């Protein structure tokens, strides 16, 4: 029997269950039955790479050492990402959300735009948001844009803070975007300081309610799929409370909150669904209409 076969047999269902519970207990991330194969494959890869003979050895190391635990977590959260991964989302942000916020907050001083990229991975999403704002004429010079980018993975955040990208990650960028927002770096494309200053990277576990202040827009793309239904509801409610009235929530294409009790307005633009928090006036009008129908 070769080493790979030994590991496949060495990782018992009980050990896999213990690993699943450890991850959920610490992060709220839930690997349900639909992600069973993904979980076992990634754990087996991790066992081989770290030279652990059994799942119990990995569990012991992860419980004793944050470094070992985070290394395992990074393996399980690795996902495909790129700049402007969902073009229709950024088009809606540029053509619908930014002009609306510009009108709404034009007379405020200072003119501050606050956006949260929740689950930012290696940084392509918050930098895509920053590029969209920078390339929007009405915002480029006269607004102070603050983008909070959070992720549970420490290594992913280190990558994001370096702002150095190569290969397929930058293939979606046009020559103009590369020339405007990047400079040639060691082995790749380096985000320019002006763009980098717009983004603050912070390690955060979304399962823990951390106060981040009010936001004008929240991007949480392909993150809810990692949580149980109960935690999804709690997180979406928290997003609703965090948003300014008239603020927007962006989710991944496969994620829906239509069955949740939160009172977002769903707006369909092409193949993108935006969730808008009503203003106090709109919420009151809606309540009066509902009352009138009763």
**Helix-strand pattern:** HHHHHHEHHEHEHEEHEEHEEEH
CATH third-level topology of the largest domain: Rossmann fold
Strand order of the largest sheet: 6-2-1-7-8-10-9
CATH-level-4 superfamily name of the largest domain: Vaccinia Virus protein VP39
CATH class of the largest domain: Alpha Beta
Sheet having the most strands = 7 strands, mixed
Helix content estimate: 40-55%
- Content of β-strand: 15-25%
User: Count the strands?
Assistant: 10
> What's the N-to-C terminus distance?
71 Å
Radius of gyration: 21 Å
CATH architecture of the largest domain: 3-Layer(aba) Sandwich
Look at the helices and sheets and give the structural class. Answer: alpha/beta
Q: Would you identify the regions where 5 or more consecutive residues have pLDDT less than 50?
A: 1-9
Inertia-based shape: globular
Tell me the number of helical segments per DSSP (H or I, 4 or more residues long): 13
Number of structural units classed as domains? 2
Mean pLDDT: 86
Regarding quaternary structure, how should these chains be classified? single chain
């Amino acid at each position: 029997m070769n080493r790979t076969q030994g590991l496949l047999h060495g990782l018992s269902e009980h050990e896999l269950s213990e690993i699943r519970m450890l991850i959920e207990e610490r992060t709220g991330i839930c690997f349900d039955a639909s992600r069973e194969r993904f979980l076992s494959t990634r754990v087996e890869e991790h066992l081989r790479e770290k030279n652990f003979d059994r799942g119990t050895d990995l569990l012991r190391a992860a419980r004793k050492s944050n470094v070992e635990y985070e290394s395992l977590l990074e393996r399980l959260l690795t996902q495909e990402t790129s700049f402007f991964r969902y073009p229709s989302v950024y088009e809606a942000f540029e053509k619908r959300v930014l002009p609306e916020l510009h009108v709404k907050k034009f007379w405020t001083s200072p003119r501050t735009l606050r956006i949260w990229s929740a689950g930012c991975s290696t940084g392509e999403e918050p930098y895509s948001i920053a590029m969209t704002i920078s390339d929007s004429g009405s915002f480029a010079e006269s607004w102070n844009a603050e983008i909070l980018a959070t992720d549970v993975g420490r290594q992913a955040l280190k990558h994001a803070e370096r702002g150095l990208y190569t290969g397929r990650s930058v293939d979606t960028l046009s020559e103009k975007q590369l020339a405007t927002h990047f400079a040639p770096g060691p082995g790749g494309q380096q985000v320019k300081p002006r763009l980098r200053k717009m983004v603050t990277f912070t390690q955060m576990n979304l399962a823990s309610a951390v106060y981040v202040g009010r936001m004008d827009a929240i991007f949480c793309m392909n993150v809810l799929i990692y949580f149980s239904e109960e935690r999804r509801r709690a997180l979406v409610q928290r997003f609703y409370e965090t948003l300014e009235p008239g603020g927007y929530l962006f989710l991944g294409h496969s994620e829906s909150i239509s069955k949740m009790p939160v009172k977002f307005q769903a707006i369909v633009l092409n193949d993108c669904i935006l969730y808008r928090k009503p203003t106090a006036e709109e919420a009151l009008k809606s309540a009066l209409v509902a009352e009138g129908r009763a």
